């Protein structure tokens, strides 16, 4: 298993290097350049030239790239032109919010996606199956920002069941420890803060989970249908095994490989979906930072968040590969 993990890690290194080249080239191809963005309204040709010299942007492109690579490996992503704070400190503050929201959305997606997909496959061609398929089409088709505003209008402003925005209620005296509000409440024993943080997570978590849940339902349904038509399932049924035993040991275990891949891919995509969700619910996470960085042409922030997203995506896919090896040991020798 260790060799399998090391092999996957080595395969991830070229991916990150290629992406760093693409990000480096893309940001320098944008109009204006980093110096113009940092100077803003004060950008005169002389000041832009001086700042380009200070930043080393007047050096040969390959020299700039290797310096950029060196800073990246040491965690130096520069200073945000929007807030004048280091990008690393901004990400450190915002990342727990996005992870908390993303994990909540993933929890909802798996909680509803796998059972509904399995149920649709078990009742293939019946009313339950048709209803689930129609529901997934609606979940994929409705834009996240529209659904977010609709949910806020009904459940926050209309019924007042949930808070409309933010991560915690204003005026709540919660002790920050890790940046993860739910975890902080548990660690400090402030259960009112834990409950408040969970309550704020429900609406944005459900909205962000709609597309991943719909995709997981469709993949689970298709995968279970394929397994149900296999000869070994008919053999197990002919032996008189209980339906629960067949479902647990034979159907679900063999159907989980494509589902695990889907969950991994959706986890990586949650960062992109979080941009709209975080803006709608005023959730100060990575997605909110990214949207703000695009608006203000904050090059340092943009390149750091894009590389962070790529790194997370690679790590998630590595974990998916490891889960493959656990679910099906035959994968380890391929």
Name a few traits of the molecule.
334 residues, MetI-like fold, 77% helix, mainly alpha
- Give average pLDDT, whole number: 79
Residue windows where pLDDT falls under 50 for at least 5 positions: none
CATH class of the domain at 92-285: Mainly Alpha
Rounded to an integer in angstroms, the radius of gyration calculated over CA atoms is 24 Å
CATH fold annotation of the domain at 92-285: MetI-like fold
Cα-to-Cα separation, first versus last residue: 12 Å
CATH architecture heading of the domain at 92-285:
Orthogonal Bundle
Q: What is the ordering of alpha helices and beta strands?
A: HHHHHHHHHHHHH
Which structural category do the helix and sheet elements fall into?
A: mainly alpha
Q: Roughly what fraction of the amino acids lie in strands? A: under 5%
Structural overview:
Helix 5 (87-122) packs across helix 9 (191-228). The protein starts with a helix and ends in a 7-residue tail after the last helix. The chain is mostly helical. The mean pLDDT is 79. The longest helix has 38 residues, at 191-228. It is globular. The chain has helices at 2-29, 33-39, 45-55, 61-73, 87-122, 127-141, 144-158, 181-188, 191-228, 231-238, 243-280, 286-296, 299-327. It has a domain at 92-285: MetI-like (MetI-like fold), CATH 1.10.3720.10. Helix content is 77%, strand content 0%. The relative contact order is 0.14.
Q: Could you outline the blueprint of secondary structure elements for this entry?
A:
Layout: H1 2-29, H2 33-39, H3 45-55, H4 61-73, H5 87-122, H6 127-141, H7 144-158, H8 181-188, H9 191-228, H10 231-238, H11 243-280, H12 286-296, H13 299-327
Helix pairs in contact: 1-13, 2-3, 5-6, 5-9, 5-11, 6-9, 7-9, 7-11, 8-9, 9-11, 10-11, 11-12, 11-13, 12-13
């Amino acid at each position: 298993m260790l060799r399998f993990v090391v092999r996957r890690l080595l395969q991830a290194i070229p991916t990150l290097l290629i992406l760093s080249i693409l990000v480096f080239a893309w940001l320098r191809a944008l109009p204006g350049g980093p110096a113009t963005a940092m100077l803003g309204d004060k950008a005169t040709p002389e000041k832009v030239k001086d700042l380009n010299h200070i930043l080393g942007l007047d050096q040969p492109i390959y020299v700039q790239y290797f310096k950029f690579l060196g800073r990246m490996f040491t965690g130096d992503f520069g200073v945000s032109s929007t807030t004048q704070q280091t990008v690393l400190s901004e990400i450190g503050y915002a990342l727990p919010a996005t992870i908390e929201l993303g994990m909540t959305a993933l929890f909802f997606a798996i909680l509803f996606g796998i059972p509904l997909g399995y149920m649709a496959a078990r009742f293939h061609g019946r009313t339950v199956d048709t209803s689930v398929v129609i529901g997934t089409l609606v979940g994929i088709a409705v834009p996240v920002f529209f659904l977010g505003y609709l949910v806020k209008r009904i459940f926050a402003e209309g019924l007042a069941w949930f808070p409309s925005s933010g991560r915690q209620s204003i005026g709540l005296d919660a002790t920050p420890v890790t940046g993860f509000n739910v975890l902080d409440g548990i660690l400090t024993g402030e259960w009112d803060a834990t409950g408040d943080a969970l309550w704020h997570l429900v609406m944005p978590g459900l909205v962000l989970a709609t597309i991943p849940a719909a995709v997981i339902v469709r993949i689970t349904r298709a995968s279970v249908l394929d397994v149900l038509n296999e000869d070994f399932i008919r053999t197990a049924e002919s032996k008189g095994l209980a339906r629960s035993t067949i479902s647990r040991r034979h159907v679900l275990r063999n159907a989980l490989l494509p589902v695990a891949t889907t969950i991994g891919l959706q986890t990586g995509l949650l960062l992109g979906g979080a941009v709209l969700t975080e803006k709608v619910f005023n959730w100060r996470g990575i997605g909110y930072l990214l949207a703000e960085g695009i608006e203000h042409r904050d090059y340092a922030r943009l390149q750091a968040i894009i590389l962070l997203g790529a790194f997370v995506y690679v790590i998630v896919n590595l974990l998916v590969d490891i889960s493959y090896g656990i679910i099906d040991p035959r994968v380890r020798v391929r």
